[in-house]
């Protein structure tokens, strides 16, 4: 049994920077941090924001218990004064950003975190861990769902990623449009449809395939899905329909040439009168494999490895950068680093998406002085991309839990539909709309 | 605050298979399951087993609390009788396998799990999640450590993977030979050296770089590492030595041409008398980048994205397959599936590594009847690769915690040193030794 809070899911430097800035006073400077990425994974047309609901959960849980404080003190990571400050730590700032399910592009200001330097700097690693992984999975899921058209995709990838990442991946797959998950903890935590068939071991532990099918039907009813590729698929399908009758819910094929096999199995099922029996395929599917199965008589896809590893892009390169902070006189000062190839754009940002003929044509990122930003008038029909998630420490509940997640799935489908259709191409290419950065005087 | 046990970190079908087999009696059949992989990631010469200590922790924690049981019942995933069985679930079987840190190859029987079908089948996803991710990270870490020769590598990758995966990655990096981690939860849980410098935001929140350096030195002493690439590296190095004196511990460079910059900074530091000040580099390093820095005056490497994503291979394709189960008369029966391209080798296995001139030359995997295996005599000098981790439900403590982890690091270094030197090449190629599967009559 493990009890945890996320307060040590951080890099050490966040606490040593807190310690140093508490001593020199800059820990109390109001700041704006921004999450963005300099580039999408190579060839991708858009990114998908995911993890916002989890991030808000983590923010609520982010406080240090006695054993955390003792660890920081014993290791001399922070001094006694800082321990005292941390005892009462609760994030009291504000967070706004792109909605969960929103699409994003290079330099989109995906998240803005406002608060004192001390309270914001502690969140860097946690925020990035959540957004980088969840968004990677959601982006892969979104492409797979596009490739699958109206056929449902199901997450079966838990075994191919860290056991906790598996839960996050199941959730992120829903953002991208998946319809269910094999992962029970995700199903429990987020009230999601849990799905499953049977493993080959289930067939093998029985004296015969027929025994296994009979057992599964007896326990789960005829609407269950039988795994038919343990020995010989043709014989298995015959046995399956003999055992379950033509009302058999489905069969799963997990090996071989899935298109050819699906066609043979469909014909066999139809000949046996099992015309409503569904065919599920699994076997290292990615968006390209799914697209190649478009003309095959497949009813649903179970996706594993390629989902949970982001289909070649297991992380998103999002970074968390200070863009503005107060001077001694309290005025806000845009700041930026000038590191080679990694320079940042100073100042808090506004973000809008403009449309032409109802299709997105540009991401507008606007920076400038606080006064200039307040006075800024967006173009006609520009959509504001920034939503408040946390205001002065108060977390808006609508973005969390099951409801927040389903809203994100819905939001994503709509956001994707408003992108030029090139976004739905699996071909490698540039981001489907440009990001224009305007600096106001 | 979250309290959890790993019992729902499973795919639903594990519970529905349990339910069905409890009804038909096969849940009680003694079984042997095996973890193996059909192939290494493309071009890799060896794999590294990691996660054994975490797996043993999870095994101890694997039992269902009331809310888990209620979830399974409410969703009708299992029936009342199965709920009753699950109330008392504790794994009472045995687990043996390759030591943590051991190298492995295609078809190495990495883990063998013995027990009833019911108790073993529940563990599939959890075991695979842990081994697949941890081993992917450890393999990447091992290659990076080889490339770094005697220079220490440090984990700074937490922000580029799921927040829990980050903890597992930090731990797995130690198996591969890393010397420390930025991740505080990993440092706390496994008593590891925590490392860190400062972020660019620390420089930016101060009115000047000099202010930032003075603050860091005041809080952390002159032995700290200052980040010098926020604005202009040459000026920053000058300021750093002015502020800290020639005793400055180190500087970090996080952008640009690291080899050229390290050389310039080394010369500048030496000219300023800071001849013992170390240079740490970070910036999307992988094993190839590290190798290319061999001749640059770099003292240590901070590795992020490429570590936690397995440097192109974020998972290991390990599977968990039933290889043997009891018949009704109690005799053990080797079993195997015959799925196209995914057939398995029946029967429990023995595993040995043979050596020639003190270098490994072959992995021998032996299967056959229980009697034949008992009678098998390995060749002279063959090393037995299977170690008992759990015997009849009793978990051996030596493989867990800090000590187990450091033993794994040590074990890995020795196992790698006994492989032909080709293993240490970063060039793509075949597994460095073959796996020979012998079936005894």
From TrEMBL, chains A, B:
SUPFAM superfamilies: Nicotinate/Quinolinate PRTase C-terminal domain-like (SSF51690), Nicotinate/Quinolinate PRTase N-terminal domain-like (SSF54675). Pathway: Cofactor biosynthesis; NAD(+) biosynthesis; nicotinate D-ribonucleotide from nicotinate: step 1/1. Pfam families: NAPRTase (PF04095), NAPRTase_N (PF17767). Transiently phosphorylated on a His residue during the reaction cycle. Phosphorylation strongly increases the affinity for substrates and increases the rate of nicotinate D-ribonucleotide production. Dephosphorylation regenerates the low-affinity form of the enzyme, leading to product release. Signal peptide: none annotated. One of its GO terms (cellular component) is cytosol. It catalyses: 5-phospho-alpha-D-ribose 1-diphosphate + nicotinate + ATP + H2O = nicotinate beta-D-ribonucleotide + ADP + phosphate + diphosphate. Its EC number is 6.3.4.21. Residues 8-132 form the Nicotinate phosphoribosyltransferase N-terminal domain. The keyword Ligase applies. Keywords: Glycosyltransferase, Ligase, Phosphoprotein, Pyridine nucleotide biosynthesis, Transferase. CDD domains: NAPRTase_A. InterPro entries: Aldolase_TIM, N/Namide_PRibTrfase, NAPRTase_N, Nic_PRibTrfase-Fam, Nic_PRibTrfase_pncB, Nicotinate_pribotase-like_C. GO terms for molecular function: glycosyltransferase activity; nicotinate phosphoribosyltransferase activity. It is an enzyme of class 6 (ligase). GO terms for biological process: NAD+ biosynthetic process via the salvage pathway. The keyword Cell cycle does not apply. Residues 153-340 form the Nicotinate/nicotinamide phosphoribosyltransferase domain. Belongs to the NAPRTase family. This is Nicotinate phosphoribosyltransferase. It comes from Bifidobacterium canis. The lineage of its organism: Bacteria, Bacillati, Actinomycetota, Actinomycetes, Bifidobacteriales.
